[in-house]
C-alpha cells in the first residue's frame, strides 16, 4: 500500500490514467500479489517522499492482481495498454504527455524518480 499521506497529498486525482494526462505524472506499479517483494521495495523507496511527489505532480497508481488503486481504470485495461505482465513486478514512470519515461522490473529509487522527473522539459519549464 502506498503511504496514506502520499495518497492524500495527491488528491484529488482525475478518475483515469488517461485523464491525468497534462495534469499529473504517474508512477504505475504492477504486482501479482500484495506481498510482492518488488512492490514492498517500491513502497519503502517512496516512504517519506510525500512532499517531493506533490511538488512534482506525481500520482501513484497501483495494480495488484485485478485491483487498481489511485485511478478508476480496470486492471486488465492498464495491463494491456502498458504491456504489464500479470505475474511479476513492474514500475513505469509516465510523463504528463502520457509517454513512458522509465520502466523497471525492480523498485525505482526516489532519487532516480526525482532526477528523471526534474530532467523532463515540462518540469524544467515549470521552474522558470
From TrEMBL:
One Pfam family of this chain: DUF4174
Signal is among the record's keywords: yes
Keywords on record: Signal
Domain (DUF4174) ranges: 18-124
Domain of life: Bacteria
Name of the protein this chain belongs to: DUF4174 domain-containing protein
Amino acid at each position: 500500500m502506498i503511504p496514506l499521506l502520499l495518497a492524500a497529498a495527491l488528491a484529488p486525482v482525475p478518475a483515469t490514467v488517461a485523464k491525468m494526462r497534462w495534469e499529473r505524472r504517474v508512477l504505475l506499479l504492477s504486482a501479482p500479489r500484495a506481498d510482492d517483494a518488488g512492490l514492498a521495495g517500491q513502497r519503502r523507496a517512496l516512504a517519506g517522499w510525500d512532499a517531493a511527489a506533490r511538488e512534482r505532480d506525481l500520482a501513484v497508481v497501483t495494480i495488484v492482481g485485478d485491483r487498481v488503486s489511485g485511478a478508476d481504470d480496470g486492471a486488465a485495461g492498464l495491463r494491456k495498454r502498458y504491456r504489464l505482465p500479470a505475474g511479476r513486478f513492474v514500475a513505469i514512470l509516465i510523463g504528463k504527455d502520457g509517454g513512458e519515461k522509465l520502466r523497471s522490473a525492480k523498485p525505482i529509487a526516489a532519487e532516480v524518480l526525482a532526477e528523471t522527473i526534474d530532467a523532463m522539459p515540462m518540469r524544467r519549464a515549470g521552474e522558470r
